[in-house]
Amino acid sequence: MPSLPTCSALLIQVRLQTQTAYRGIVDCVVKTYRHESLLGFFKGMSFPIVSIAVVNSVLFGVYSNTLLALTATSHQERRAQPPSYTQVFIAGCTGGFLQACCLAPFDLVKVRLQNQTEPRAQLGSPPPRYRGPVHCVASIFREEGPRGLFRGAWALMLRDTPTLGLYFVTYEWLCRQSTPDGQNPSSATVLVAGGFAGTTSWMTATPLDVIKSRMQMAGLKQREYRGVLDCMVSSARQEGLGVFFRGLTINSARAFPVNAVTFLSYEYLLHSWA
Ligand SMILES: C[N+](C)(C)CCCC[C@H](N)C(=O)O
C-alpha cells in the first residue's frame, strides 16, 4: 500500500484538487520532484498506513453485518440465496457512512500534510507549518478547536455513503455476471470485479472529493466556506465546472489495482474464517 506509485497518486490528486499552481498530472509530478525530491511524494502517508486497516475493517465489517441483518442468510448460504441489489446497496451505504466517521480526522491530517510544498527541512529555510502528523493534530486542535479535526467531515460522508453503496453493487453485479449460479467467483473474477468497483466508485466520488479536500484546507490559507453548497458554488464560479473533475484520471487509475487486491483479501478472509 505505501508504495511510491500509490503515495504519488494520492499526493498529486490532492494537490491538483486544491491548488491552482499545476497545469496537470505531469507538471505536478515534475514540480514536486524538483522542489521536494522523491521523499516529497510520501508526505502525509504515515497516518493513512495506520488508518487504512481500521477504516477497511469498519467498512467491510459493517457491510457484511448489515447484510446479515437484512437477509438473515449466513455468508455460506449467500451464493445459493443471493441478497437483492437493494440490500447490497443499503449495506454498502451503511458501511460507507460509518467508515467516513472514522476516516475524517485521519484524512484531514493527510490532506494538510500533502499540501505542504516546502522541501525537507534545510538549515536557514523556514520550517513547514506542520512538522509531522502528531504535530499537525495538536496544531489543528489548538488553532481550530476540537471540531476543527472534523473539518470537511460532512462532505466526506456525502462522498462516501452513496458511492460505497455503488461500490458493493458494482462488485456483486460483475461477480454474478461471470459466475455460474450457486458457485463462488474465481480469483480472477474477484480481482476484475473489485477493480471495476473501485474505479466506478471513485469516478462518481470525484466531484465531492474535490469539495471535501477544499473544505479541509479552508481555515488555513484558503477562504472559509459556509458549507458544502457554498464551496461547490464558489469553486464552480471561479474555476468553471471542470473543477469537479480534478483528479478524476488519477483517482480512477489508482483505484483499480488497490480495490482488486482489497476484494481478493476480503473474499479470502471470509472463506478462511467462515
Ligand atoms: C468511496 N470512495 C470512492 C471514496 C472510496 C472507495 C474505495 C476505498 C478504497 N479504500 C480506496 O482507497 O480506493
Description:
GO terms for molecular function: transmembrane transporter activity. The chain crosses the membrane at residues 47-70. Solcar repeats lie at residues 1-69, 83-177, 185-272. With 274 residues, the protein is mostly helical. Among the domains are: 1-43, no CATH class; 187-273, no CATH class. It is 69% helix and 0% strand. It contains 9 helices and no strands. α6 runs antiparallel to α7. The radius of gyration is 20 Å and the shape is elongated. The two termini are 26 Å apart.
Secondary-structure map:
Blueprint: H1 4-18, H2 25-36, H3 46-71, H4 85-114, H5 133-144, H6 153-177, H7 187-217, H8 228-239, H9 248-273
Residues 159-160, 163-164, 167, 198, 201-202, 205, 255, 258-259 line the site of N-trimethyllysine.
Low-confidence stretches: none
Q: What class, by secondary structure content? A: mainly alpha
Oligomeric nature of the chains = single chain
Strand content: under 5%
Helix content: 55-70%
Number of helices: 9
Radius of gyration: 20 Å
Number of strands: 0
Largest sheet properties: none
Mean of residue pLDDT?
91
Query: Which small-molecule ligands are present, each listed once?
Result: N-trimethyllysine
SSE series: HHHHHHHHH
Shape: elongated
Give the N-terminus to C-terminus distance in angstroms.
Answer: 26 Å
Pfam families: Mito_carr
Membrane topology: Multi-pass membrane protein
Organism: Pteropus alecto (Black flying fox)
Family: Belongs to the mitochondrial carrier (TC 2.A.29) family.
